[in-house]
Structure formats: structure tokens, C-alpha cells
Amino acid sequence: MKPQMALVLSLVLFTIQAQAASCGKVTIADMNWNSATLIANVDRFILKHGYGCDAELIPGDTMPTGTSMIEKGQPDIAPELWSNSLKTALDKGVQEKRLRYAGKSLLDGGEEGFWVPAYLVKKYPDLATIEGIKKHAKLFEHPEDPEQSAFYTCPAGWNCQISAGNLFKAMHLNKSGFTIVDPGSSAGLSGSIAKAYERGEAWFGYYWSPTAVLGKYDMVKVDFGSGVDEKEFVSCTTQTDCEAPKPTMYPPSPVHTITTEEFAKRAPKAYEYFTKRGFTNNNMNQILAWMEDNQADGEEAMFYFLESYPKIWQAWVPQDVAKKVKQAL
């Protein structure tokens, strides 16, 4: 090897080692649902190749990860934390300078609602409202009783079954002939939408975003005409003992990226990336649909995203970082 080349290689190696030393070892929680594992893999790749961090994924889940970050300072990063589920503890962690809310991983927040297929709304525009749903109740035939109309709810045991049931009651859907249909599972609920869509049939029920289903199928969220009453939603709609629920749209669920204070101080440039990194539900729905169609894991989806959506991720980082990430791809 020529001396000049050896010197260049030594300088490159020194630069990489210096960057890694300043950023250090970084642990990232890899949650067990598709959007979270995609984001975790994207973060690992960008931190490693763009910022020179020694980035590593470790298994995570909402409650244990949040608790561990507050009590033990590990992992360094939770890329997609639905923060309402442990808001009091997270806020206390921020107050005690253990944690930071770095940014929103889902810019629109998690979105819940009652939905109908877009092709139905095209035919009957008033189906975009709850009054239109009641007016055309006969369209939504019950799978077992043609005399009844079907409202597909959240699977039994899920928290959203409580809110969906209370809103069904609040809007007196039973008086229009609707009966609640329990799909039995997440697959049963998404399967009922897919089946209706393939046949061009009517469907009405609860669903949420971001999901592969709303990436594949064009659905319209029904307007209850109530606006969002967050106080009512928290104190009554989501409670099993809510005796007199009132109509309210679902408030967006905040979905944050949380980092430890130690990481933010140790690697300020890498931390700044998290303040800018975020997905819209529309983008995420499209990627999740691709993941499902291709049976892709988080790492495969990460490569698909970085290669297919450069304009999105390059806006999160400085030009020199984007160049390093592109070279690594």
C-alpha cells in the first residue's frame, strides 16, 4: 500500500472512531409492532452511518421501556412511544431531568375513529356524517341477521372496545337498527374491511391509523358533528362505568420519541435528528401496506423506506449526514 493511501485510510478511520466516541454506544428500543420496528431500524441506520454512533437495537415495549428509561436510564431512545399510557411518569422523568420529549414520531398522532369505504361516500356523500350513517343504516347488513345493521367494533379485551361501545351508546345507533359485531381479533376486524372492499359492499366500524389496512383501502372517517371533547373522552368515553356518554370525536393520541437526558447532552447533533424526524400517518400507512404485502421485517422495510422516500428522510438531517447515509445504502 502506498504511504499516501495509508495516511488517507488512517485519517478516515480516525474520523469515524472520533465520531463514534463522541456519540458513543446508543441503545434503541425495538418495539414489536410494524411502525415502531420500522422507525427503530431507520434510526439505527441513520445514527450509525450518518452520525458515527455505535447504535444497537434492543427489544422493547411501551410500559417496560418507559419505566426502564426513567429508573435506569436505558435504553437511550424509545422511537415510538404512545405517551398517554404513561404520561404522568414520563412528565415526572422530564421534570427530574432524566428524559426528554425529543419530537413526534407520528406527526398526526395516532388516529382513531368510525370509518366507511370511500366508494360508498362517493355514492352517498352524507355517509361521511353520523346522521347519514343512521339514515342509510339498511346498507350495512349484519352478517348473520339481515334485519339488523352491523357496526364492527374493537376486538374483545382491547381498550378501544370500551370507547367504541360508549360512542355507539352516545349516538343511539341501536335506535337506527345497528348491532355491535365483535370481530374476535385484529385479523378478523381487518379481514372484514378487506372482504367488504373486494366485494364493493358496505362496511361501518371502528379502526385506527397508522395501519396497513388504511394504507391499502381508501376509507373515510365519519364526522360525529360533535368536535373533540377531550375532557369527556378521558373521564367518560374511555371508562367502563360511563353511564351517560356523550358524542365526541376521538382526540389524536400523541406518539413521541423519548430520549434520555444523558444521550441528549452527550450527542447533541444526533439528538437534533430526533427533533426533526417524524412520519405522517399517510406516509406510514403506505409503508405498512408495503410491509404487509411483502411480509417484510423492520430492517427490510427500513431499506425500502430510505431508498423509496429520500425527500422525506433527507429533510431530517444536514446535507453531509444525508450524503453519508446515501453512501452506506
UniProtKB/TrEMBL annotation:
Family annotation (Pfam families): OpuAC (PF04069)
MF (Gene Ontology): transmembrane transporter activity
Chain ranges of the ABC-type glycine betaine transport system substrate-binding domain: 25-307
SUPFAM superfamilies in alphabetical order: Periplasmic binding protein-like II
Signal peptide coordinates: 1-20
CDD domains in the record: PBP2_HisX_like (cd13641)
InterPro entries for the chain: ABC_Gly_betaine_transp_sub-bd (IPR007210)
Domain of life assignment: Bacteria
Keywords: Signal
Any Gene Ontology CC annotation: ATP-binding cassette (ABC) transporter complex
Protein known as: ABC-type glycine betaine transport system substrate-binding domain-containing protein
Organismal lineage: Bacteria, Pseudomonadati, Pseudomonadota, Gammaproteobacteria, Vibrionales
